[in-house]
């Protein structure tokens, strides 16, 4: 029986990217794990080299909500930090909606204040989510909400506890309705696989920057192209490192391939620890001109993994 015969109305699908912004320890991972309903968020990232990372995908009513992480939004201290902050904000600007998560117990001190300042420049619709309300008196929450809304006109303010779930259903109802109508970005059955592939790409990117950060542009990008589980329990992973120029490719390879070899070894070691299986990692370095200027880059970063 079709939906129409059944008398049920088929609502249009919605989908979009939600940039999750918040100071360290605000509860981003805890919240995504709760909203996504599975532990796909896996790691909290140690090094802030990511422009926009997929944290998890939630399905609510007819909407597919893709949570993106934009680490590195904090007060810049060194030159490198400043480049990362800029990149992090550019990730946020590509999202359909920005969700600022604040630890209500800590309030707007420190990084939260700097983030609010930065958010003023961003045009996307923004919502405020005060987390850890289980620890804060209601009247203090109201004061905090008022102070934050004075700095920025948020579309909505939510008060939640990521650990006990209070307020989370209302938040999801809102997100599902706020995202644009359109087809889902990811096929439902591939969702579980995506974060692992992206995580693997991110680990390699982290190693790349740890070794060569002053010599490579921030736009350097890694994609996981193949992921093959083998009968002997090991996994074969093929990744491409995309750079913008031949000169950068030379740097990434190093003399006699020595740089890429050590990057690959470091990435393989970490991956096999996380996956708890033997990993065969193959890295290819390719030049893709103007990659850094491509406005579709961000979407592609997600979509490429499902192909
Ligand atoms: N009481 C309380 N604690 C919470 C809540 N949400 C998160 N926490 C705790 O806050 C701490 C930080 O949570 P995380 O989810 O790791 O925070 P995060 O923002 O992902 O942190 P980074 O990855 O370091 O940026 C953990 O100890 C959580 O258990 C909440 O609603 N109430």
TrEMBL record:
GO BP terms, alphabetized: ribosomal small subunit assembly
UniProt keywords, alphabetically: Cell inner membrane, Cell membrane, Cytoplasm, GTP-binding, Membrane, Nucleotide-binding, Ribosome biogenesis, RNA-binding, rRNA-binding
Bilayer disposition of the protein: Peripheral membrane protein
Region (G2): 48-52
Main location: cytoplasm
Chain ranges of the Era-type G domain: 14-181
Origin superkingdom: Bacteria
Domain KH type-2, residue spans: 212-289
Keyword rRNA-binding appears in the UniProt entry: yes
Region annotation G1: where it falls in the sequence: 22-29
Renumbered residue ranges of the record's region G5: 160-162
Signal sequence range: none
Region annotated G3, chain positions: 69-72
Record's keyword annotation contains Metal-binding: no
Assembly notes: Monomer.
Protein name: GTPase Era
Organism: Martelella lutilitoris
Lineage of source species: Bacteria, Pseudomonadati, Pseudomonadota, Alphaproteobacteria, Hyphomicrobiales
Gene this chain is encoded by: era
């Amino acid at each position: 029986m079709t939906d129409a015969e059944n008398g049920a109305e088929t609502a249009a699908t919605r989908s979009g990217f939600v940039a999750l912004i918040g100071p360290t320890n605000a509860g981003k991972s805890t919240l995504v794990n709760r909203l996504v309903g599975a532990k796909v968020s896996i790691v909290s990232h140690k090094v802030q080299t990511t422009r926009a990372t997929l944290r998890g995908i939630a399905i609510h009513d007819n909407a597919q909500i893709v949570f993106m992480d934009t680490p590195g939004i904090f007060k810049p201290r060194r030159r490198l930090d400043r480049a990362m902050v800029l990149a992090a904000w550019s990730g946020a600007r590509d999202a359909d909606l920005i969700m600022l998560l604040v630890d209500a117990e800590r309030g707007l001190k420190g990084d939260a204040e700097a983030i609010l300042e930065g958010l003023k420049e961003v045009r996307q619709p923004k919502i405020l989510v005060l987390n850890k309300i289980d620890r804060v008196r209601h009247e203090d929450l109201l004061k905090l909400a008022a102070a934050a809304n004075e700095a920025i006109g948020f579309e909505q303010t939510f008060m939640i506890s990521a650990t006990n779930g209070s307020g989370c259903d209302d938040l999801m109802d809102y997100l599902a309705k706020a995202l644009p109508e359109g087809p889902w970005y990811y096929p439902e059955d591939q969702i579980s696989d995506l974060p692992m592939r992206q995580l693997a790409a991110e680990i390699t990117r982290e190693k790349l920057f740890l070794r060569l950060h002053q010599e490579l542009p921030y736009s350097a990008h890694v994609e996981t192209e193949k992921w093959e589980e083998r009968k002997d329990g090991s996994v074969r992973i093929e990744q491409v490192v995309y750079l913008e120029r031949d000169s950068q490719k030379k740097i990434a390879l190093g003399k006699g391939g020595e740089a890429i070899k050590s990057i690959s070894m470091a990435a393989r070691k970490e991956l096999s620890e996380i996956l708890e299986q033997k990993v065969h990692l193959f890295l290819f370095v390719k030049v893709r001109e103007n990659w850094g200027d491509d406005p579709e880059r961000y979407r592609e970063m997600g979509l490429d993994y499902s192909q």
